[in-house]
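Subject: Hemerythrin-like domain-containing protein structure
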Amino acid sequence: MSTSSKDVEEVIDRATESVSKQAEILGENEEREEALKEIEKEEEKIEKKEEKKEDALPKLSAADFKIYNSMAEHMNYFHNHFRQTWTLLKTATTNNQRPRNLSLRQFLQTGLSFLSRLELHHGIEEQHIFPVLARKMPEFANGKNAAELLRQHREIHKGMDVMQEYLEKCRDGETELSLKVLGEKMDGFGEVLWKHLDQEVEALGAENMRRYWSREEMRRMPM
């Protein structure tokens, strides 16, 4: 059976029409998929907003803020003393001149007292304060997978040991004090120390503490 040119043209036209329709359908599907993706994105944004709303807590009253921020205030009080003494020592190393009102022996003793007080401070924290906080707060967990604040203690103490050994040798006359060398010893742990002093107070701040503790529990805290 022969096929006329007209029949061929009709077949081609139908095929072309079919391809055209497929392209339209595919185009519509692609547009639909894009639209669905946009909808999903919007839904994700809405979900995140809802999560933030759930996380958002009502504003604390002045009285409640004082209760929840009490540990941060106490901690910052101690930390400010460490900051002040550190600054006195570090300024001397930067200027290559110890304070005029301090003799060499007094200056060395200032450095050693700073290290002694800081070690005592960390000891009290780890024995009496952090274990209580760690019951609910991962920021103060100790052990194999210790929290960053505890790891910072260890790093700080490594630098403290180096600084203490040098100051004791200077005090005992085994070596002459070089403010440049002392500055290098302090640089070995200064960054982590200052980060720790700030980060620890922040962790004890009212907005963080209220997520874990009641007002009654805050009043019973060991600090």
